Amino acid sequence: MANNVTILVVDDEAPFLQVAQALLESENYTVETAVDGVAAINILQQKSFDVVLLDIKLPRVDGIEVLKFIHEHYLNTQVIML
Questions:
Q1: Quick check: 2 pLDDT over 60?
Q2: DSSP reduced 3-state for 44
Q3: Which residue among 33, 46, 65, 68 sits deepest, i.e. has the most Cβ atoms within 10 Å of its Cβ?
């Protein structure tokens, strides 16, 4: 069954990203990943997402700043802070 929900997973720990992506894709979600806040913002500027799973503690730009960016620019994107 096709699923049109897109999810961005943002975390600086590669094993978590791999497990989260595999689990979500096994449920037919479209998933992209980012390893820090700067990468997350860059991805968000290029593509819209339904949900962002967002780590609070990130290198370069932390999760709180990414959350502020999302709230300012993407009102329909839901965020789950990790």
A1: no
A2: helix
A3: 33
CB 51 within 8 A of CB 67: no
Alpha-carbon span 59 to 73, nearest angstrom: 22
Sole residue written with tokens 């961005």: 8
User: What are phi and psi for residue 16, nearest 5 degrees?
Assistant: -65, -45
Here the tokens at position 8 are: 């961005």
Q: For 58, phi and psi rounded to 5 degrees? A: -130, 150
- Calculate the alpha carbon distances from 37 to 4, 10, 25, 57 in Å: 25, 7, 22, 9
Whether residue 74 is predicted with pLDDT greater than 70 in this model: the reply is yes
Residues 35-46 have pLDDT tens digits of 999 999 999 999
- Say whether pLDDT at 61 is over 60: yes
The total of other beta-carbon atoms located within 10 Å of residue 20's CB is 19
